[in-house]
Protein: Phosphonate ABC transporter, ATPase subunit
Organism: Marinobacter nauticus
Amino acid sequence: MSQTPTSMVKLSAIEKTWADGTRALNSVDLEVPQGQFCVILGPSGAGKSTLLRAVNGLMKPTAGKVQVDGLELTQTSERELRKRVAMIHQHFNLATRASVAANVLSGALPEVSLARALCGWFHPEQREKACHYLERVGLKPEHLHRRAGELSGGQQQRVGIARAFMLDPKVVLADEPVASLDPQISRDILTLLKDAARELNATVICSLHQVDLAREFGDRIVGMRSGEVVFDGAPEEFDDQRLGRLYQNADWGDGEPTQAREDTPQLEAAGGM
Ligand SMILES: Nc1ncnc2c1ncn2[C@@H]1O[C@H](COP(=O)(O)OP(=O)(O)OP(=O)(O)O)[C@@H](O)[C@H]1O
């Protein structure tokens, strides 16, 4: 008998209005089940990063409720949240002067006491796990003691993935993880991320700019525009017409707005694209 998948992330009526009046999120409802690779797609300024930051607690919504693994964020300590939710960043966010090993081990910090963290003392099991993940992401033993900043972009993102998986997270948030990488390396990195998440049955919410990658890797595509969800469905449903509507007159992040086409209807309400 098939079971209804557990909802791992649940956003209910999330609003975010920044101090300058910018409305970044407008009544966003989103439920992401356990184990899903959910891609957030949309033009620059659509609210993708703001949404991801709502899930990891870095952005306090103006209104609405965020739940992760059944816990409401306002009632959850940062430490509890960090054990469940890991983040992968566009610009890797590594300590570039520290070793690759130290960067990966830093993913275990929410589980380590301050005194031990200051001395750089990690459990042998944590060191073993760091080695396991470094191997898992395709880095070699000789990389362990190199400074992270000396690695290529693709290698740095591999370190970022290994770090993110150190605490067996239930949720991995990836904010444009391949934006600065070339197409083949982007595919390798997304394959790694998807496979590593599948091994743990972890939920991934990944913002992307590349539509082809969203279609290839997403179990589901959520299209955002002007702070609203305007498409939510399977990649097969996200056809070129819907793509056109999502990006109509929009900024692709390269400063080149797409031209409106006369036959392109106005955006409809969520799910109605
Ligand atoms: N700290 C802030 N203060 C004021 N406005 C902000 C702040 N952070 C984001 N915004 C605004 O909120 C809106 C959504 O931004 P967000 O970064 O979430 O978009 P995005 O879809 O991730 O864009 P991109 O693809 O370019 O990264 C934008 O209008 C942005 O300028």
The pocket of adenosine-5'-triphosphate is lined by residues 18, 20, 22, 24, 42, 44-50, 253 (CB under 6 Å).
